[in-house]
């Protein structure tokens, strides 16, 4: 029987975006829930799970003793890249568009477009989220990439995972540069968890968060 991956992305049926790209790195280290680390997170090289098509894996057993399965993309080099085409957002929260240059393999039956960016995130209603499966406890480190102009900088966002939440403030940056938040979250319970982003305040109500 193949070894279960430590962390797996559960692909979405709806669209997400990637003027926001979140890079998640899973580690077997003990860190406090949702604390900022002292140094900038440097993710491993490569495209994470994006070059691996979704595949079924065992999720456990239901109360009747029947085994159930998930369709997911396992992390590669302990890295996931959460993009426009593998998450969910609530209707009216934002809008996805463009054509991404990142790879997208074997999931056209779930969502065909390979979106490049998210815009019109100018409301504090709703969430943007990705669903993950953890085979064992560990630490997730998140890099969040946002294209934010000087006039848009200063929005306050809530970043949540595994029952813990951090409130962070955006700074002006290019999409290629992660926001300086250095987020870490400790996963204590194996199973499904959700990375969720929501806006507490939006600095520029016209152009939005970024």
Throw out a few tags for this protein.
single chain, mainly beta, eight-stranded antiparallel beta sheet, 14 strands, globular
The number of domains is 1
Rg for CA atoms = 17 Å
Structural class: mainly beta
The helix count comes to 0
The arrangement of helices and strands along the chain is: EEEEEEEEEEEEEE
What share of the residues does DSSP label as strand, in percent?
35-45%
Give the low-confidence spans: 12-21, 26-38
Question: What does the model show?
Answer:
There is one protein chain. This protein is an all-beta fold and 210 residues long. It has one domain. It is built from no helices and 14 strands. The chain has strands at 7-10, 20-27, 55-61, 67-74, 79-82, 88-89, 95-97, 117-119, 128-134, 138-146, 156-161, 164-169, 183-187, 191-201. Strands 1, 3, 4, 6, 9, 11, 12 and 14 form an 8-stranded antiparallel β-sheet that branches. The chain has a 4-stranded antiparallel β-sheet with strand order 5-2-10-13, with no helix packed on it. A two-stranded antiparallel sheet has the order 7-8. A hairpin with a 2-residue loop joins β11 (156-161) and β12 (164-169).
Short précis:
This protein is mainly β. The protein contains no helices and 14 strands.
Question: What topology emerges from the helices and strands here?
Answer:
Elements: E1 7-10, E2 20-27, E3 55-61, E4 67-74, E5 79-82, E6 88-89, E7 95-97, E8 117-119, E9 128-134, E10 138-146, E11 156-161, E12 164-169, E13 183-187, E14 191-201
Antiparallel strand pairs: 1-4, 1-9, 2-5, 2-10, 3-4, 6-9, 7-8, 9-14, 10-13, 11-12, 11-14
